Amino acid sequence: MTARRRVSLAKFVAVTLVTVTTLLLVTLGIAGYRSEAKRQRKELDDLVKVQASGLAVALAVPVWNIDRPVIAQVLQAMAQPHSIYGISVTAAGETYGRARDADWKLVPWDGRNVPAGMILTNGRSFSARTGSAPSASTSPPRASTATCAI
Predict the structure, then answer these.
(1) What b/e sequence results for 18-50 when a residue is b if at least 16 CB atoms lie within 10 Å of its CB, and e otherwise?
(2) How confident is the model over 44-62, as pLDDT tens digits?
(3) Consecutive sets of 10 residues in the chain, 150 residues long: mean pLDDT of each?
C-alpha cells in the first residue's frame, strides 16, 4: 500500500478559494469586456447613422440640382471628423466622395473598393423634389444614396 498524504484543511481551503476567485474574476472580466464592446459598437453604429442622415439632408437639394461644386463642398465638410474614413454619394449615376489615404488626408473617392479593415458602413437613400406639389409635368424625384464609412 502506498502512503497517502494528508492535505491540511488550511491548504485545501486556500487552494479552493484561489481557484474559485480566479475563475470568478475571469468570468466577470469576459462578461464586462463583451458588454463594453457591445456598447461601443452600438455607439459607433449610431454615429454612422447620424452622419448618413445628416449627409442625406445636406445633399438633397444639391443632388437634385446636380450642383457638383456644392456636392463636393458638402462632402469635404462632412468628412472632416477624424472618425470618418470615407463618405460618398451616388447621384444621377455618378459617385462622388472623399476618403482618407495612407497619411489620413482626404482625397477623392469613387465609393468603391472599401479597404478590408473597414469596420462599419451605412447608406441612406434620399430624394428631393422642387416645388410644393407634383404636377403632370414634374419629373419623378431622383433617388440618391449617401454612404458614410467609419
Answers:
(1) eeeeeeeeeeeeeeeeeeeeeeeeeeeeebbee
(2) 888 888 888 888 888 888 8
(3) 76 96 98 96 85 82 84 86 80 80 83 58 50 31 53
The count of C-alpha atoms lying within 13 angstroms of the C-alpha of 14, restricted to the half-sphere facing its C-beta, is 5
Beta strands 86-91 and 94-100 are: antiparallel
Report field, pTM of the whole predicted structure over 0.70: no
Q: How far apart are CA 101 and CA 85, in angstroms?
A: 9
Cβ pair 58, 78 in contact under 8 A: yes
Residues with Cβ within 8 Å of 119's Cβ and at least 6 positions away in sequence, in order, are 44, 150
Q: The cell 487552494 sits on which residue?
A: 15
| Nearest-angstrom CA–CA distance, 62 and 150 | 24
Give the three cell numbers for residue 120.
462599419
Q: CA 101, CA 83: separation in Å to the nearest integer?
A: 14
Question: What angle, 0 to 180 degrees and rounded to 10, lies between the N-to-C axes of helices 68-78 and 9-64?
Answer: 160
Cβ atoms of 71 and 142 within 8 Å: the answer is: no
Rounded CA separation 115/47 (Å): 20
